[in-house]
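Data availability (excerpt). The following record was deposited with the supplementary files.
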Amino acid sequence: MLILAKVKFDLRDPDELYFAQRELDALLDTKTRFIKTISTLFKEKPFNLLNDEVIHLISRLVYMGEGQGFLAEIPPINIVNLIKRATFFREIYTIFEAERGNILNVLEKIGVQKIKPEELNYEKIDPNYYTQIFIKNSINSDYLITVRSIPFHTLFEYVTEVKKLPAAVFRPKNSENWETYFREKEIGIEKGIRELLEHMKTGHYRSPHFGLGKEHIGDFVDWASTDLRKPFLHYLHKYKGKGDPRISRALINLLKVKEGDTVLDPFVGSGAFIADAPTMGINAIGIEVLNIGKMIADVKCNLGIDLIDLRKSIIKLFNLIDTSIFKQDLKAELFELKEKIKKYTGENSAYKKIEPHLGKILFIRKAIEKVENDEIKRFLLILLSQQVVEYSEKSRAWDIINSFKSYLEDRYLVLYSTQKLAGTLSVNLNGSKVKIIKGDSTNMTMLKDNSIDGILTSPPYFDALDYIGNNKVSILTLGLDEDLVWESTKDFYEARHRDEAEHNTLPFFASDKYFSIELPKSSMNLIELLQKSRRIYKAKVVENYLKMMKLSFEDCYRVLKESKYYLMVISKYHSWIINGKEEVIETSPILADLGRSVGFKLVDVIEHGLSKADKGKIGVEDILVFQK
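Predicted structure:
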């Protein structure tokens, strides 16, 4: 049996091509063959025997980079698991030969069920929304069967394009109130999903329209759009340093976990690395020390939120905003909020940009706080927080209330389309458990020994990002002042934050143990290098960071099951001023040594270049593959 996996034609970075092969190798548990140009396959058996329609499908919309797909010859396996979980592939083809009397047996073995014997008389069968079967009588009396499968992740990415169709974009003509307005938009989304699923199967001879006035779903999904596709809730809030959604999903597959297993992200941040877990039937736990990160992660990982209650709350909120019934005097609270932001930002440019809008922001926040459902309240507050980020980064003249309403509508329609598609594909978005815990990854006492099936994370890259400073305005406007107990991320690395005398919410490690931690030679060499160049404060920050990371490694080793994997995404290099000159230090080996020092085996290092959209100061990342 041959498996041909065709990569998506809109890969953002060439490195994703090689990451795609690693993901496929892990899912198939074999080494796949790199296919530079798919069309060259049609010179060899069995590809030269395929009918014209299949050849057209395979060779259509291919990636124009260094390679176009991967090929594997394997015994028959259930390909449904592959289709549910694969990230980087637009289509996956399963090709095999079989006698007529054995075709149904093989199809059932690979997970394609409910095919009636009489259907084998047809050249093409459509058993479900994501599968097509092509049957051709071969020259040796066996039949050549091609099963074309569309990965679920591809469909979930494409369904976000549905809200760009006219029925979902333009204000409905008959919308006398918000109730009918949203219902007509939902009808447009449902119509668009039907159009998408039909097009993915039958629209492969249609040329997309590239100019203005795009009206067909093929105009959006059949060309490598410059707009980044934004599936699920991955991009609902700006949070610096968050993981790339495609890479994050692929990392779950590299862990080789199965449905029902539990993965852990000990530095979960805004939840990017585990947000896809519920769509794959996998349970997830995230540990996050900041309330702002935990709150975003809670929302991002909750794709199964009750849409009926959410829509009712949105309509009630919109009606309240439109009629301005909210008459409560907010002058005192507004003054307090302004003074607080002044204090913590030093009246910087962010304060000056957001200050004119703070009255309306407070008005919306107070209205949201009246919502009784905590899940919905968090959802609405995080969307408000995103508008705060937008308006504090750039001077904007557009009214923030209208901006908030527009953004809320957009995210609701994304959720609506996601849930409707999930229902069509029989994906239970509430079938897995995701728990985001406010805590510290240096002491995860709430987790039992040997209880986790896989760990994936991207910890802070030394002092490259200040997660507290970067989110101050959001933290303050949402009333999450507890996050400012540390002035910056650097302060959190200090020993006093491992001292249970200062924090009674969790039994943290006592500071005397922190001071006695022994670091590997590579860590000590880096610290000494900074000390000798008179970077005394920097050396202390780095030392504190490395000690904290060793404590985290120790607890990750404790909770991980035997022989299971820990994937850590870390910057490959770091730039520091050494003796007056900027020097580039390769820092990922230092983290690798830390992992080894607690008992982990380093079994692989995957280098991954970042796309231009994500680069910032970090150009290259290493993915350290540890095994217990």
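Summary of structural features: Residues 500-510, 611-616 have pLDDT under 50 and may be disordered.
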